[in-house]
Amino acid sequence: MSQPDLSRRHFLRAAGTLVALPALSSLGFKAFAAEKPSTQPKRMVFLGFGYGVTNETWFPALKDTGADYALPVGLAPLAEHKKDFTLVQGLSNKFSDEAHWGSTFWLTGANRYAEPGQSFHNGISADQVAAMRLGMNTRYGSIRLDCANAGDSGHGPGSMAWDARGKPLIGHENPVAAYHRLFSDETMPLAQRQAMLAEQRSVLDVVLEDAARVRRGLSRSDTDKLDEYFQSIRDIELRLSKDEQWLDRPKAKAPFPEPKPGLAGKDEIKVMYDLIVAALQTDSTRVLTYRQPVSTLLTSLNIKVASHDMSHYAPGERREASQKRDLQQSTLLAGLLTKLKATKEADGSSLFDHTTVAYGSNIRTVHYLDNCPTLIAGGGSGIRLGQHIALQGKSTPLCNLWLTLLQGSGVKVDSHGDSNGIVKELKA
């Protein structure tokens, strides 16, 4: 069979995007084959952190459930919000078998060995499922906030957000970058930006035509690679369509000045939380993820223990470090919830009333992957608040929680990851 006249050098390169035709063994590349709503919109915020929590002082007693449970020491700074969040025990990702993979599978619940012959596979994360529905009418389908230290996820690929192909989505690693993404207008003239988009679409059309010509005669594995390639093209098409929709519309005015550069630890987290509120307040996006720093948080608290050592604590300095970390994280979270409650919507309700905040970690403590720390706040998904729920029986898929929150936020989805139903105990 004669091979199509197609070079592997065909690519789309525009606005920082590179989409090269995959190496297909069937083609001889054997060496490479390895508008403002009438009602207030729903919003979702996912806040994740590495290295778990202090097991003895973060979780309520398993038998102390309901609304009158005793708030544990590690969550004491959240006391004023106790009626407005729910703690859930008994959730985990059944496929998680390596503690050092951190936040990689927290929102996906994927089995990294699901693809035969591959040592890593991931699925779409809950935030990106939400973004496909809740992000349709905002400038940004979702905003991902991150931390510069990859180790803060607990080793492994650090991203919390993964697209439909199971590929990681890059986040903004500092408040200044996130601020400019949200609120700084483009300096390039409109006509020039329009021309760039038109050129990108033209190149995209050529790439699609070239790729479509090679489908015949491909092996099954190469067909799968090509399908993944087409999915990447579709993702770019969606992004271009979004860019075109907002091309001549200025960004929202920033509600506060540009953050100082070089913020780290608790100061960085506080400003990132301010940016989350600002992004929701201006309706720039309705879906956000934030993978929070741990090592710089410890440093900002004058704690000399390294984050990994802290997570492997025993009575003494390491455990004290872990407990101080818990208290500071709870204090910062309390500040975020206070601001969400204080920020009013046009109808007099608050951002908190229409936002779901999911806060937790993919790991309980040390190397234990059961009973993931889980706190849910806000009125966006209509769940029961002010509760401590200890799920009975074998460990419930964490994805059951994500499915419950997605459905409660108006996202029409029947399953997510390894879910086998919703968490009925959360239904109001």
Main sheet specs:
7 strands, mixed
The averaged pLDDT comes out at 84
Task: Write the CATH fold name of the largest domain.
Answer: Alkaline Phosphatase, subunit A
Described by the principal axes of the CA atoms, the overall outline is globular
Radius of gyration, in Å, reads 23 Å
The CATH architecture name of the largest domain reads: 3-Layer(aba) Sandwich
Which percent band covers the strand fraction? 5-15%
Walk across the major sheet and give the strand order. 6-7-3-8-9-4-10
Distance between the termini: 63 Å
Q: Provide the succession of SSEs.
A: EEEHEEHEHHHHEHHHEEEEH
- Tell me the structural class: alpha/beta
DSSP summary, beta strand count: 11
| Tally of discrete structural domains | 2
Please give the share of residues in helix.
25-40%
CATH class of the largest domain: Alpha Beta
